[in-house]
Structures are given as structure tokens and as C-alpha cells.
Specification:
The chain is mainly alpha-helical. Helices cover 65% and strands 3% of the residues. It has a two-stranded antiparallel ribbon. Helix 6 packs antiparallel against helix 7.
Amino acid sequence: MIMAVYSGLNGASVYRLSHTWDDLDPATLELRSEMEEFLTSRSNARPMRMAMDEAYVKGEPCAPYAGIYLRDIVFTEDGVPTFIDSKINFGKCALLYNIYHDILRFQGRDYNISPISSIIDEISS
């Protein structure tokens, strides 16, 4: 969800609103900077991966960002040979299993999410 907001703010039509960006208060610009740092793809998206791991360990609700896992799958599929000396590369199979396991670990968990009436009222109005 946060990636969708970030992508929207960095879309060409919004990004070009230079006068609007100049008028934002420093706290808002700092928040945007923190969001950019959190969502960076440098260091293999380490901040986001750590946040997802922390949410999982604490049992907090988390919808993992699929882009990270899709990139992992593509790099594994393209960068690791499926066969070595005409034999199946089970190391590659293990790498792919670990990626799929990371995705699936967030499914099937019960989350105790209580409705927040103020948010529901705002959405409904």
C-alpha cells in the first residue's frame, strides 16, 4: 500500500508540481524523504524486508510487497542455471523454495483487526 502512495507521489504529473513541492512544510518533506529511504531498492530493499520480517515475528498484519519477491524470482531464474552437468540444480530449487516460503508465510494467519469507526466514517462519507 505504501508503495502505491509513493509511486503516485513520484508519478510524472505530480512530480512536476514544483511550486507545490516548494510550498510544503519541512516536516512533510522529511516524511517524504523517510518514505523514500524506506522504499529504496538499494541494498536489496533491506529496510522493507526487515520491516516485513519484524511484522511477521510480532504477528502483526502485513501484506508483503510482491515486487520484491518477483525481482528475487526473476534474478534466481535468470541468474542460476537450472541444470549443472545435465543434472538438476537442487540449489536453485532450494533458493526458489525459500522465496515462495517467504511469500506464503504471511498467508493463513489470523489477524485480530478491529474496525476503526473514524476511518470507516471518513471512507463512507
